[in-house]
Amino acid sequence: MNSTTHAVIRSGLLLGLIALLGTALLTGVNALTHDRIAEQEKRRVLQQLNAILPAASYNNNLLEDVVEITDEALFQHPAPVTVYRARMDDQPVAVLMAVTAPDGYNGDIRLLAGFDNSGRVLGVRVVSHRETPGLGDPIEIEKSDWILSFMNKSLLNPQAGGWAVKRDGGEFDQFTGATISPRAVVKAVHNALVYFDANRQSLFESDAKRPNRDNG
Amino acid sequence: MAEQLKQILVDGAWRQNTGLVVLLGLCPLLAVTNTLINGLALGLATMLTLMVSNLSVSALRGLLRPEIRIPAFVLIIASVVTVIELLMHAYFFDLFRILGIFIPLIVTNCAIIGRAEAFASRHGPLASLMDGFATGLGFCITLVLLGALRELTGHGTLLAGAEMLLGEWGSYLTLTIIPEHPGFLLAMLPPGAFFGLALLIAARNAWQTDEARRPARPVSNLNGDNLIGDNRET
């Protein structure tokens, strides 16, 4: 074996060794942090859900009592909608739907909308968005109270035409300089409500996506 | 040795400041500095990465052959950054969500591979560790200054969101400097970052020029007087 091949092999092995060490380190740290990260993610989702639906009003495991629905024609979005079902002693209490408004000014606006069993809006929160700061971002609860205007609304209150921003003849305020963001949110919440109203029974009765104790 | 370490500190943090003089790593610098705390968090993460990567590169420098040094640096830096990313995800969850993509992107901060190549591969572990600390400190200070400038002009506050880094009690640290601030959009958006950085660089240059204009300190002092300090008047 000449010295060039020798050097190449040595370099390759050395590089391999460094890669192996790096991988070993990452595997170790991943094993140490994996559970905690999963727990933090869960805690965050639960926090968001409980901001709309108080933890005292249900006693099932909200994070596991989940179904995924797809209705591309209604939601105009290919992604499945996750529905969290809240029950008190196995009686349906409310659903929380993670819907996506596809028509924000800057792409998707991800929302969480809660409806009680009678079809009344418990609350809506924006989970993530890329609307223009200062113009479209009052849809966030941290920026303004606008999102609270959905509280206690239902399919008949206001009537169908009222489920729009004021510029479109509806009941909901738009923002100065931004109509597209609130319009997208109103439409997405309305769609979710329409779906819930039409499928209430089956939503609560269908099996959970994941194996789950209280809903076998 | 102590003198050399001090020299490295001054070089890294001030004379060769990554953000203001060398102008490396500008992408994260401009992107996350909308508040002081965001800047501080990314600054600390970058500083830690620099220290660990410099130390590892320096420890391995005898083994690393020139032809594989760059891929080896990349492997080392990527591993270090991923470890930091996992730890932040687990222990500083809210902050991790805000800084998001910019934590893994520390890998691409050319300042880090630059220090590995230019310094750590040629110096001992202690000097390399110091260089990582100094460079990281310089970068961190720049991020904090720019973050403070933008947060103050954009929101009228300082240290908003400190609880994400420090825990519950951090929320008491938030200072409202300008009450009822209407919000200055330009400072919060990316263009504000460019304006802010330009102002900081200009300020540093002005300081440097001013310093250069002063007469040099006499090397030997015949009268034995203590001349340390401002001697512009003499």
What layout of secondary structure does this protein have?
The complex is a heterodimer of chains A (216) and B (234).
Chain A: H1 3-52, E1 66-69, H2 72-75, E2 81-88, E3 91-98, E4 100-104, E5 107-116, E6 121-128, H3 180-205
Antiparallel strand pairs in A: 1-2, 2-3, 3-5, 4-5, 5-6
Chain B: H1 2-15, H2 18-22, H3 26-31, H4 36-59, H5 69-91, H6 93-99, H7 110-120, H8 125-155, E1 157-158, H9 163-166, E2 175-176, H10 185-188, H11 190-213
Antiparallel strand pairs in B: 1-2
Helix pairs in contact in B: 1-8, 4-5, 4-7, 4-8, 5-6, 5-7, 7-8, 8-11
Total beta strands of chain A? 6
**Individual helix count of chain A:** 3
Structural class of chain B: mainly alpha
When the domains of chain A are counted, the total is: 2
- The end-to-end span of chain B amounts to 34 Å
Give me the Rg of chain A, rounded.
24 Å
General shape of chain A: elongated
How many separate structural domains of chain B?
Answer: 1
Stretches with pLDDT under 50, minimum 5 residues of chain B: 219-234
Mean pLDDT of chain A: 88
Largest sheet data of chain A: 6 strands, antiparallel
How would a crystallographer describe the biggest sheet of chain B? 2 strands, antiparallel
The rough form of chain B would be described as globular
How would you classify the helix and strand content of chain A by structural class?
alpha+beta
> Largest chain interface and its two residue counts?
A-B, 21 and 25 residues
Query: Percent of residues of chain A in beta strands?
Result: 15-25%
Number of strands of chain B: 2
The proportion of residues forming helix of chain B, as a percent range, comes to 55-70%
